[in-house]
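STRUCTURE:
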């Protein structure tokens, strides 16, 4: 019998990891913890836990066990990295909290744009209906009375006539964008992909903070556990799955062998916040590199949360202003012919 597996929600995944970490902290084994949490999940998620338990019984690596849960790649890599240096419990709790917070961000964004997008849809359809049915009647009436159509109304008619073409062009652009993104992800190296994204102003600051947060928390935890910098980079490389941080780990290892310092290597590329290099210099100078990086990563996450909340607060008023302006112009283009017709009569 074939079951349809629905996507395990990120918030529920986060809650599962968080509770798993708490049970491990209380002394339960990972098998016992998963069995206890399994009973509180839906049937679809229980099957994923069964797959994870089968992988656990087969003695597979921890990465394979959590991969069977369909977690995001960056979460799997973070758990795998921290398990290698004995920080599995804390990593589960922190990554569970991060997943829940990201799900909250996505939910807030959905709430922010859902109603404005609905209004935009209605406004566009209103414009199309006015153009197809109402404005032709005005044009016919004005022609019969030999009255010139107001310039503003004629301009709005021209704009409304472009809407079907614009929607078609938008559809084609979306399809082309999806194709281009697919080809880039397939053929371009992850570091080159990251460099391309850095050229987009909207993504630049956000990605730098996200990259710096991931590197600080995971690299810092390994340094704090006693690993030398080079060994920590080797662990980071071995636990990443052909991604950006795997390439960066190799680049940083090669640079260190060539005699460069870690802060210099991080500032050579535009992938990280400038503050990260300063934090590393400060941590190395005071012998507290691991603790400083972890603290900096926590601070970055709070900064990301504030930045996203601020963007949400600005986005909705802008959308309402654009939609309201369009509707206002639409009704103004209707009222002007009526006033001119009244003057003519």
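SEQUENCE:
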């Amino acid at each position: 019998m074939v079951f349809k597996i629905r996507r395990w929600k990120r918030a529920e995944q986060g809650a599962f990891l968080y509770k798993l970490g708490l049970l491990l902290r209380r002394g339960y084994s990972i098998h016992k913890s998963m069995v206890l949490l399994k009973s509180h999940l839906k049937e679809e998620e229980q099957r994923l836990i069964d797959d994870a338990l089968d992988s656990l019984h087969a003695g597979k690596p921890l990465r394979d066990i959590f991969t069977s849960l369909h977690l995001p790649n960056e979460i799997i890599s973070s758990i795998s990295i921290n398990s290698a240096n004995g920080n599995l419990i804390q990593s589960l709790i922190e990554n569970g909290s991060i997943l829940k917070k990201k799900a909250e961000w996505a939910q807030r964004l959905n709430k922010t744009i859902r109603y404005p997008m609905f209004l935009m849809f209605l406004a566009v359809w209103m414009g199309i209906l006015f153009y197809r049915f109402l404005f032709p009647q005005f044009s016919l009436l004005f022609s019969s009375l030999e009255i010139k159509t107001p310039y503003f109304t004629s301009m709005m008619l021209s704009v409304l006539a472009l809407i079907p073409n614009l929607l078609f062009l938008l559809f084609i652009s979306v399809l082309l964008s999806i194709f281009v993104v697919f080809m880039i992800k397939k053929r371009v190296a992850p570091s080159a992909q990251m460099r391309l994204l850095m050229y987009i102003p909207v993504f630049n600051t956000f990605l730098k903070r996200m990259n710096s947060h991931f590197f600080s928390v995971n690299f810092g935890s390994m340094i704090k556990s006693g690993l030398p910098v080079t060994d920590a980079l080797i662990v980071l490389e071995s636990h990443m799955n052909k991604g950006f941080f795997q390439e960066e780990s190799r680049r940083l290892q090669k640079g260190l062998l060539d005699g460069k310092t870690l802060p210099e290597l991080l500032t050579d590329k535009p992938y990280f916040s400038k503050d990260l290099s300063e934090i590393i210099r400060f941590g190395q100078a005071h012998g507290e590199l691991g603790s400083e990086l972890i603290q900096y990563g926590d601070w970055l996450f709070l900064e990301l949360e504030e930045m996203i909340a601020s963007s949400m607060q600005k986005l909705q008023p802008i959308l309402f202003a654009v939609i309201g302006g369009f509707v206002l112009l639409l009704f103004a283009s209707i009222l002007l012919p009526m006033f001119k017709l009244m003057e003519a009569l």
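REMARK: Residues 88-144 form the longest helix (57 residues).
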